[in-house]
Amino acid sequence: MKDMQEAPFIKEVRDMTANMYRLGWDERNGGNISYIVPEEEVAKYADIQHPVRSIPLDFDAAYLAGKYFVVTGTGKYFKNVSEYPEVNLGVVRIAADGKSIDLIWGFADGGRPTSEFPSHLMSHIERLKIDPEHRVVMHTHPTNLIAMTFVHELDDRSFTRTLWQMITECLVVFPDGVGVLPWMLCGTTEIGEVTAEKMKEYRLVVWAQHGIFGTGKDLDEAFGLIETVEKAAEIYMKIAHLPRLQKIEDQNFVALAEAFHLDYRTDFLDI
Ligand code: 13P
Ligand code: ZN
Question: What predicted TM-score, i.e. pTM, was given to this entire model?
Answer without folding.
Answer: 0.98
